[in-house]
Structures are given as C-alpha cells and as structure tokens.
Design goal:
The complex is a heterodimer of chains A (about 575) and B (about 260). Helices cover about 75% and strands about 0% of the residues of chain A. Chain B has 10 helices and 10 strands. Chain B has a 6-stranded mixed beta sheet, sandwiched between helices. In chain B, helix 3 packs parallel to helix 5. The chains are: A mainly alpha (about 575), B alpha/beta (about 260).
C-alpha cells in the first residue's frame, strides 16, 4: 500500500510542479506577482506576530492575556482555514478528478488513492500556512523571547495544523457525496466559499458601526481578559498546542510536551480514523456517483423557459438561466451586489471611522466653497454624491456580469460559433443581458436616492440619463473586452477572464467612466455658475455624452467582431 | 445553387510549423453518407472544424450548398448541423430548453421546434428526463441531445465527429437508422469514426485521411472490389501503414 501511495504522490507532485514551472511570459509574470504578494503577506504576518509578542512583554499592559492564547489562536485560524477549504479540495480530488476511473479500476487499495490525493492537497495548504501563519508564530516567539524549543515545536505544529482541518473536511465531503451529486456539491461548496469571502469583506465594514471611545475602560478590559482566559482554557486541540508551545519556550518541557503530544495524537488519530472510514465511505460514495440519481423530470407544458422571443432576447435569457441556476455564478452576482450596496451606502451615509458621511457633510455645508468657486463646489453637491454611489453599484455589479458574459459559454462555445449568427448579434445579446438589469437597478436607485434626499428633480433626470448612457458604453465595451479575454476553459468562476484581461478591462472602464463622468459634471458645474442656462447646458451635456457613448459602442462592436474569429481557436 | 452539398477545395490548416491539414479537396453530393476515416491526429477533426466555420483555414475554401464558409458564413452555417467529438452542452439548461435554444439559433418556427423536440426525445428515449438539467445526463445521453440539436433544423448536411462514442448498442443502432433515413430523404452526412465496421455497413463512400492528406476517396464497394474484396479494416490498415498490426497483436498476446 505504501509503495502505491508514494508512487501516486510522486506523480501528483510532478504534475503540479510541471504545471507551476511551465514557462510562458504571462505565467512567469503571474508567479512573480504571486511571490511578491506572498512576501508582502509574510512580512505583514511577521510584523504582526512580533508586535503582539512585544505587547505581551509590556509591564503595564491593561489586558491580562495568557501568552499561550496568541499561538493557539494562530493555529486555530490555520485549522479553521483548512477546515473551510478542505471539503471542496476533497470533493475535487476524490470525486471529480479525471484519473479516478483508471485508479478505482486498478489493483490499488482505496486507501492509497485517498491518502495520496489528500496528502498531495495538504502540501499546498502547508505552503500557504508557512507563508501566512509561520512568520507570525516565529516572530511572536522572538517578541516574547522564547527559547529554542519554541521554534522547533512551532515548526512541527505548523505542519500538523492543516491535517486536522483536512481530515474533518474530507470526512464531511465523503458523507455529503452520499446525498448530493459530487459536481453539484463542488458547485455549492465553491459558492459557500465565495459567500464566506463576501461576509468577511462585509465584516471589515463593522468598525463603522462600533463606537470605540469606551474600549479602554476597566470593565471592558476585565471582560476581555475573562473571555481570553475562557477561550485559552477551552478544550480546543490547537489552543492546547499553543499553550504547550509557550511552556516549551519557557523551559517547562514535560508540561509543554504533554500538551503538544496530546494535540499531535488527536490530530493523527483523526487522520487515521478518516483514512479507515474512507475505505468504506469513499468507494460507496464513488459507486453511487456512477449512477444517475437525479429525480426524473419529463416533458410537461412548462418544461423550461426559452420559448419564443427574438434571437437576442433568447441569448440574454439563456445567459440569465445559466447564471441563476449555477450557485457559484449566483453567489458571485448577489455577493458583488451586496458588497457594492453596503460599501457605497456606508461611504455616503456613515463615513469612515465615526466621521460624517459624504452626504451629511455635503448637506451640512461642510463641503461648501466660497461663491467664486461654485464651479468646483458643484462636484460635492448631494445629487452628484448620490449619483456617484449609484454608478459605483452599477459598475461593481454589471462590470463583472458583462465581462464574463462570453466566457459563460465555456466549452459550449462551438454551439454559438457554428450557428448561423453574426458575432455582432452574439455581442448584442450578451450586452442586452447585462444592460436591461443595469437600467432597472440604476432607475430604482436614482428614484430611492431622490426620495431619501430631495435634490433637484430636473437634475435627477439629468443624472439618470447620464448614468444610463455611461452604463451603456461601459457594458458595451466590457462585453467586447470579454470576447477578447474570455477563458473558455474555466472551471473556477474567478478564472473566466484571463489574468491580463482583468487589468485591461479595469483600466479601460475606469478611463471611460472617468471621462464621461467629468463631462457630465462639467455641464452640471457650468449650470451652477450660469443658472439661467441650466436647461440648454443639460441638453448639450447629454448630447456630448450620447455622442461619446455612440462612438464607444461602435468601437466596442468592431473589437468584438475582430475578437470573435480568434475565439475557440487557441 | 449547385448539386454538390459540400465542396472542399485545397483546404489547408497549419499550426505554427505543423501542417495539420494539407490541401484537402473533396465533394459530397446530396443523399450521401460519407465516412471520414483516419488514424489519431490525421486531421479529421481539424478538417471538420474548418468545414463548420469553427476554425479558419490557412488557405483553401469550403462551400456548403454553394455558400462559401468564410465569405458567406451565415448562409453556409444555416445549411449545416454539427455534432462535436465531445457534447459540451449547457449544463444548467434542460434538454427541452437546449433544443429550443438551438431551434431559435437556426430560426426554426416555434411550433416545429416543439414538434421535432418531442420526436427526437421520444426516438432517443429521453422524454422522461427532458426536464432535467443536462449536467445530470451521462455522456451518452448528452451525445443523443447533441445529435438531436444537429438535426433539429433539418439541414442538407450534418457533420458528425465520432458520433457513436459513449453510446450503448441500442442508441448506436438508432443513430445508424436515423442517418440512413436522413440519407433516403436526400440529406448528406459526413462523419468521422474509428469504428470501421460501422463505416463499412453504413457509408456510401469513405475518405481516408492520413498526416493531413487524403490518401483514398472512393465508394466502399468499389474500394473493396479494387482491393480483392478485403475488409475496410484491412484496406484502412494497409493505406495508413498499419499492416504490422497483426505482428504487434501477436507479440502482445505472447506477452513479449
């Protein structure tokens, strides 16, 4: 069994290495960029760990925190991260990889397949752990002046921490596959991760709702100290290991080692239990997967949508069905909208860190400029601020929707390319699928903004028309750029556009929106200086933006057509 | 308009230094089933992709019912049905939705889409799962839906790349019958296959391609007569340099 396991592990590592080391300009650039990000995160992690260690050494620190709490918390975070990511990794490795038919049919023990697949995945998790948590754990030791034993033990624990999470994740995956088809489960887990990412992003907005002025009062400090004590002494294996680490660092070898050995036994024990259970769970789940367990739904009067309508609307509706029915697409769409609304809304209505929001500042006159600067002051009027927020929401949601609309075809792209349909029709259908909901969202948000803050009604119409035109140009161009940079081989929704594409799309969208936004603002500002000419100025402003947008759409159409011929040929 | 349904003229495709298809020329008439045979990597799929407008040729032309696939792509594509080597369908559409979508792409009147969809699903025994998402289908079931989509607009010619791969014997037989029925209605089919037995029993004509070049193009009966009544398999192996296969099989059987 061991030789099979090692053989498979060596194979997977070699394949991973080949994929990573494959030389191409863009790949090397991405690896370089990732390395830079990794170094930055490692440095930040190290600085954080050292800082915490130094704080713990301060004699007048108000909060009485057990020194073992910090390494325990770091290991717990590693465990949780491994726990969160491992079910999806396990589903992909154990149920959705291409070599399974061959492996299951070969005279190899199931245990060799599960162990090799799980441990190969584990090596990548350990790499991330060493980059993200390793520096913090090591520099924390330096900060508190721990002995050599601390560092040796920390190194061992870092390797073991992900194993605990991976074991639970793998067990969970093997159990869930008995009820859900593996592919569906993979989609749902990917969607769940995206959702967790969104929730974390939203959590970063929490400080805006918290008043920190009373954070240092003695009662709060005492409560926090009690919480820290309770958590440190909780029967969580990683916290036990953290405490053992400190004991070893302080020279209390027998106590420290006993705690760490307990943790190691629990972790290895869990992994062994997982492997033993996998003998039964894995193969029965895999066999179940081979049969079609979906509930049979025959032809009924309403066996689905896509009945009637024009060719363009058919393409648009088809795209929406694909987005709404794939949990990964749905979460990315809903999550993006949620973040945009919360971040945009908070910036306007709450401001940052207890300061007044932009809107409040604008309404209170805090942003008013002297009369001779009325032209510039117009940029800070409530209507402009609210319109910018609406544009921000529209951009965040529909930028992604339009750029990925062609990539949504994926491997099915030959269906469109071999059909008697022009690239322009496909481009129009895709753009319409993003533009119609954009127009609805922008209209609703402008109405809400006007109802909440009664700024000038005629200028609300101006803002609405400008936003519709700007969105039309943005969606047209982004759809077109999506043709140029589509990755039709995607399996992960975050990889629907090629790496370089994301950068160009952001740059081109930003330039266009900035240019048209400034033109819209220019005519509004001129009207603030010459109020009698407001109506003609608004009309001229709209005509200029419409003309610019028309040119932009024409350009986008041409680009889409030229990109079409190359699509699917690589 | 012309009597020839498909005319490929010096069709060539080069990928960097590699010549995948080298000046391939042939014609397909109405009511013909043509087998497009060749070893792996011979250029079958590349040729079919150029004929269906999925891949631009480096040089040469292809005409479908008189329409040039490069200069009149819409007219040409309206005349073809295409079944790719792997049925990559939209996983989150139901079979009915997929066929409606394809029908609308090819401008089939809605009532005909519904009628043909029901017929096709019934023929392939998929009516009971027609409301399920396609990503719950097996490979063979997806292949049947891809074939249904290719015939939905009743085109003069259908290109099929390995259509019987992944199909059970009953479904493979159904497809054979369907192709023969379409041929009798005057439709043409060009299909690539590795199963020479199918080619021998079904095809009116076979074209054999090797290393990007056509090395044989004749009616099956004529070809066999010329080669002393050899089976198509023997002819194929002889032409593509696979005559040493017998020796290799013996060596393998002896465990050498």
């Amino acid at each position: 069994m061991e030789s099979d396991t090692l053989l498979l592990m060596r194979l997977y590592w070699r394949l991973d290495w080949r994929q990573t080391s494959e030389r191409s300009g863009m790949r090397l650039f991405r690896i370089g960029l990732l390395a830079l990000v990794g170094i930055f995160l490692a440095v930040m992690s190290g600085l954080g760990g050292y800082g915490l260690g130094q704080v713990m050494q301060m004699p007048d620190i108000p909060l009485d925190i057990n020194p073992g709490f910090i390494p325990g918390a770091i290991l717990t975070v590693v465990l949780l991260a491994a726990l969160l990511t491992s079910p999806n990794q396990a589903v992909r490795a154990l149920y959705l990889s291409d070599d399974l038919d061959q492996l299951v049919a070969a005279p190899i023990k199931t245990r060799s397949i599960t162990v090799s697949k799980l441990l190969t995945r584990l090596s990548w998790t350990i790499l991330f752990v060493l980059i993200l948590a390793g520096p913090a754990l090591i520099t924390y030791g330096i900060g508190i002046g721990a002995g050599i034993g601390y560092y040796i033990a920390a190194f061992i624990l870092l390797f073991l921490a992900p194993l605990f999470g991976l074991s639970i994740g793998a067990l969970l995956a093997m159990i869930l596959v008995r009820w859900l088809p593996a592919k569906r489960l993979g989609e749902m887990l990917a969607a769940a991760y995206a959702l967790i990412g969104i929730l974390i992003a939203l959590l970063f907005q929490l400080p805006r709702f918290i008043d920190f002025s009373g954070a240092a009062d003695p009662q709060t400090v005492e409560t926090l100290g009690k919480i820290s004590d309770t958590v440190t002494n909780a029967p969580i294996p990683t916290l036990l290991a953290g405490q053992g680490l400190i004991d070893v660092g302080q020279g209390q070898l027998s106590l420290g080692l006993s705690r760490m050995v307990a943790y190691i036994l629990i972790t290895l024990g869990l992994f062994i239990v997982t492997i033993l259970l996998s003998d039964r769970l894995y193969i029965s789940g895999w066999l179940r997967m081979q049969g079609n367990s979906a509930k049979r739904r025959g032809i009924t009067e309403d066996s689905g949508r896509l009945q009637g309508g024009s060719l363009l609307s058919t393409i648009a509706v088809k795209d929406w069905l694909l987005r709404l029915r794939d949990p990964r697409q749905l979460v990315s769409l809903v999550g993006g909208s949620l973040i945009a609304i919360v971040v945009g809304g908070l910036a306007i209505f709450r401001g940052t860190g207890g300061e007044a929001g932009l809107l409040e500042a604008s309404q209170s006159g805090a942003l008013d400029l002297p009369r001779q600067f009325a032209f510039f002051a117009a940029a800070f009027s409530p209507g402009v601020i609210l319109s910018s927020a609406v544009l921000f929401v529209g951009y965040t949601v529909f930028n992604q929707l339009s750029t990925t609309s062609l990539a949504l075809e994926g491997h099915s792209f030959p269906i469109l390319k071999s059909a008697p349909i022009t690239p322009r029709q496909v481009w129009q259908g895709k753009a319409i699928s993003a533009w119609v909901p954009y127009a609805v969202v922008v209209t609703v948000l402008i109405i809400i903004a006007w109802v909440v803050v009664r700024f000038s009604l005629p200028w609300a119409f101006y803002a609405w028309a400008c936003l519709l035109l700007m969105g039309t140009g943005m969606i047209a161009m982004n759809t077109s750029l999506g043709f140029r940079f589509a990755n039709l081989e995607w399996t992960d929704t975050r990889r629907m556009i090629t790496g370089a594409g994301g950068f160009y799309i952001f740059l081109i969208s930003a330039v266009y929106l900035l240019a048209t936004g400034l033109i819209a603002l220019l005519f509004f500002a001129l009207a603030a200086v010459f109020p009698v000419a407001s109506i003609p100025l608004a009309i001229v402003g709209l005509i200029v933006i419409a003309a610019g947008t028309a040119f932009w759409i024409w350009l986008a159409g041409k680009w889409a057509e030229s990109a079409w011929n190359r699509l699917g040929e690589e | 308009m012309t009597n020839t349904v498909l005319r490929a003229d010096a069709l060539t495709r080069q990928f960097d230094e590699f010549m995948a298809v080298d000046h391939v020329s042939f014609e397909v008439g109405p009511g013909e089933i043509v087998g497009f045979l060749g070893p792996n990597g011979a250029g079958k799929t590349t040729t079919i992709k150029m004929l269906t407008g999925l891949l631009a040729p480096t040089s040469g032309t292809a005409q479908i019912v008189g329409y040039d696939i490069q200069s009149q792509p819409l007219d040409a594509k309206a005349q073809i049905g295409y079944v790719p080597d792997s049925p990559n369908l939209y996983g989150k559409l139901t079979a009915v939705e997929y066929l409606r979508f394809v029908g609308q792409l090819y401008r089939v009147p809605p009532e005909k889409i519904d009628q043909r969809t029901r017929n096709m699903l019934e023929i392939f025994d998929l009516s009971e799962v027609a409301g399920n998402y396609l990503d719950t289908y097996s490979h063979g079931m997806q292949q049947k839906i891809a074939i249904s989509g290719a015939f939905l607009h009743d085109p003069p010619i259908v290109f099929m790349d390995e259509p019987t791969v992944g199909l059970d014997p009953r479904s493979a037989r159904l497809i054979k019958d369907l192709l023969i029925q379409k041929r009798n209605q005057g439709r043409s089919i060009l299909f690539s296959t590795h199963i020479l037995e199918i080619a021998q029993t079904m095809c009116d004509r076979v074209i054999i391609i090797d290393k990007g070049r056509i090395i044989a193009d004749a009616r099956v009966d004529e070809m066999r007569k010329l080669r002393g009544d050899q089976s198509l398999e023997d002819i194929f192996l002889e032409l593509t340099g696979g005559t040493d296969v017998d020796d290799m099989v013996k060596e393998l059987a002896n465990g050498e």
